[in-house]
Write a structure and sequence with these properties.
- The structure is a single chain.
- By secondary structure, the protein is α+β, with helices and mostly antiparallel strands.
- The chain has one domain: B-lactam Antibiotic, Isopenicillin N Synthase, Chain (Jelly Rolls, Sandwich).
- It has 9 helices and 14 strands.
- An 8-stranded mixed β-sheet has the order 1-2-10-7-12-5-4-3.
- α3 (93-107) packs across α5 (167-192).
- The chain starts with 17 loop residues before the first helix and ends in a 5-residue tail after the last helix.
- InterPro entries: DIOX_N (IPR026992), IPNS-like_FE2OG_OXY (IPR044861), IPNS-like_sf (IPR027443), Oxoglu/Fe-dep_dioxygenase_dom (IPR005123), Plant_2OG-oxidoreductases (IPR050295).
- Its cofactor is L-ascorbate; Fe(2+).
Length: 360
């Protein structure tokens, strides 16, 4: 089931917790976190654009005009932005708040408690502070917690935090509800491609899919203009549902040549297309580069839930979307092969999915 390359045994150098650096009160960030000039953030607040907001209640009422208009908003978002927000999505606001709350409480625990869950590059599962195993790499200003939710054979409660006391129960219920929402969204995405509504779900492996959670903790940073909380990348998996911090913005999405700072709607999920859906749709839908800014005055917490194909199914463009005029842009590759490619190298913009394109 799991191909966790045995060459990924340990991190190449000792792990430093970014939260500890932040809390030490240092006036400047270590060189290891200083990005090259071309990758440093822009804080231009003059651009008022925002990713589209979709009211999902419009998909399930009896008004065909509203349903058609809602489908059109989703289609244009997937083609033009690769991102949209959903409201009235069926996950309770109380559960969303509880999920953010237990994870914020986890990161406030003593370092000795969190270290019990320290991760390794073998599976990334647990408490971490870096991606990629390149020695001497420039690192991002963030800590995180990564855990598997599906398939159930990978779900290991021992790897989940035991504190705060209700943490595991909240994570479990949150995962159940978000999986249901992902299924509803995949049906919408399939219909908008002109395919049967279960097409993408079946291409992912039916009920036998992968799902995992990455909780991001972005501590205060004394020099936010020099670093990033998460470097520019497109998501390698199928689809991501992000529960953002409503109090502190940070997510930026690339639109053409600009970086747009996402303004979260209250109790919305931010949905983005991953590389696997770009491949399946033969690039009708776009997985788009995004990154995260950090803040000198406020920490930030967000929950990224990744809904992925079964790891050993070859993913390729849907036959129904391939024509003589629009040949298949990608050769088949399993998600496991693709994920390993990224785990070795860390986030690298859109270079991963672009490198898959078939030679023409």
């Amino acid at each position: 089931m799991k191909n966790c390359n045995n060459s990924l045994q340990e991190w190449p150098e000792p792990i430093v917790r970014v939260q500890s650096l932040s809390e030490s009160g240092l006036p400047s960030i270590p060189d290891r976190y200083v990005k090259p000039d071309t990758e440093r953030p822009s804080f231009d607040s003059s651009n008022d654009a925002n990713i589209p907001v979709v009211d999902m209640s419009g998909l399930y009422g009896h008004d065909d005009v509203v349903r058609t208009a809602t489908l059109r908003i989703v289609l244009e978002a997937c083609r033009e932005w690769g991102f949209f927000q959903v409201v009235n999505h069926g996950v309770s606001p109380e559960l969303m708040d509880a999920a953010l709350g237990v994870w914020r409480d986890f990161f406030y625990l003593p370092i000795e408690t969190k270290q019990l869950y320290a991760n390794s590059p073998r599976t990334y599962e647990g408490y971490g502070s870096r991606l990629g195993v390149q020695k001497g790499a420039i690192l991002d200003w963030s800590d995180y917690y990564f855990l598997h939710y599906l398939p159930s054979c990978l779900k290991d409660y021992k790897k989940w935090p035991h504190l705060p006391p209700n943490c595991r129960e909240v994570i479990d219920e949150y995962g159940r509800e978000v999986v249901k929402l992902c299924g509803r969204l995949l049906r919408v995405l399939s219909v908008n491609l002109g395919l049967k509504e279960h097409f993408l779900q079946n291409a992912f492996g039916g009920e036998d899919i992968g799902a995992c959670l990455r909780v991001n903790y972005y501590p205060k940073c004394p020099q936010p203009e020099l670093t990033l909380g998460l470097s520019s990348h497109s998501d390698p998996g199928g689809m991501t549902l992000l529960l953002p911090d409503n109090q502190v913005t940070g997510l930026q999405v690339r639109k053409d040549t600009s970086w747009i700072t996402v303004k979260p709607a209250p109790h919305a999920f931010i949905v983005n297309i991953g590389d696997q859906i770009q491949v399946l749709s033969n690039a009708i839908y776009k997985s788009v580069e995004h990154r995260v800014l950090v803040n000198s005055g406020k920490e930030r917490v967000s929950l990224a839930f990744f809904y992925n194909p079964k790891s050993d199914i070859p993913i390729e463009p849907a036959k129904e979307l391939v024509t003589p005029d629009k040949p298949a842009l990608y050769t088949p590759m399993t998600f496991d092969e693709y994920r390993l490619f990224i785990r070795l190298r860390g986030p690298r913009g859109k270079s991963q999915v672009e490198s898959l394109k078939s030679p023409r």
